[in-house]
Design brief:
Blueprint: E1 21-25, H1 30-41, E2 45-50, H2 54-66, E3 71-75, H3 81-95, E4 100-103, H4 118-142, E5 148-152, H5 156-159, H6 165-184, E6 191-197, H7 203-206, H8 211-219, H9 229-240, E7 251-254
Parallel strand pairs: 1-2, 1-4, 2-3, 4-5, 5-6, 6-7
């Protein structure tokens, strides 16, 4: 049997005897916080990455620690290659390696395509597309065998709600790159999937919406409620676990049956 000699293949260490280790970008608030807490509850050591809000990251780490888990908070901008390399270094130094990478960091600005401020388009591209790419390439180089990368998209890629054009476009790019990365990691025993939530009750989602708008969106899926961060975290935890390891190269729309 021939062996590949890509530089990335030489960096796949065997899983360690210690706990599995997760990096969660955007892990301090909203869905990212729920993912961090769920993975810690499942026994993983968690590196909670944040961009700006140190206090939120510290709260997340404190909640994990109080529940008996292991976590550290590390600041890094997902779009900055050196900062993300340092984030992975910290995970390896602190806990011994990296087994699960969840890229929950994201940015959303809503406006019709005709009216969108192009600076907002560029900012979304930087965080959502470049950021995913930077995190995914470190994951591709450094995840241990048996590991998983989980990206984040949005069900609006399928539902096509007005005003979401630029945001959904950035997430369509995430779907494309993650599906290709899954194929590029052949032979490494690493899965790559992306979760595409529907309307989920987070500050990001609820901000700026009237109670009527929220109620209407809650009634849209057949299950007739908003998703919760814990609903999404459960799906991410499954994809990152040995139980979910046969799921690979998929976009999983976790949205209660929304289109």
């Amino acid at each position: 049997m021939t062996t590949h000699t890509h530089h990335m293949d030489q960096r796949t260490p065997a899983p360690a005897a210690g706990p599995r280790v997760a990096i969660v970008t955007g892990g301090s608030r909203g869905i990212g916080r729920a993912v961090s807490q769920r993975l810690a509850g499942d026994g993983l050591a968690v590196v909670v990455n944040y961009a700006r809000d140190a206090s939120a990251a510290d709260e997340t780490v404190a909640a994990i620690t109080e529940a008996g888990g292991r976590a550290v908070a590390v600041r890094a901008d997902v779009a900055e290659e050196e900062e993300i390399a340092a984030l992975f270094d910290r995970a390896e130094e602190e806990f011994g390696g990296v087994d699960v990478v969840v890229n929950a960091a994201g940015r959303m600005t809503l406006a019709p395509i005709a009216d969108l401020d192009l600076a907002a388009l560029d900012a979304m591209h930087r965080t959502n597309i470049r950021g995913t790419f930077v995190v995914a390439r470190q994951a591709a180089r450094r995840l241990r065998a048996g590991g998983s990368f989980v990206g984040f998209s949005t069900s609006v890629v399928g539902a096509q709600f007005p005003t979401y054009g630029a945001y959904a476009a950035s997430k369509g790019a995430v779907e494309a790159m993650t599906l290709i990365l899954a194929r590029e990691l052949r032979g490494r025993d690493i899965t790559v999937n992306t979760v595409a939530p529907g309307p989920t009750a987070t500050d990001l989602f609820l901000d700026g919406k009237t109670p009527e708008q929220i109620e209407r969106l809650a009634k849209t899926p057949p299950l007739e409620r908003l998703g919760t961060p814990d609903d999404i975290a459960a799906v991410v935890a499954f994809l990152g676990s040995p139980a979910g390891h046969w799921v690979n190269g998929q976009i999983l729309r976790a949205n209660g049956g929304l289109v």
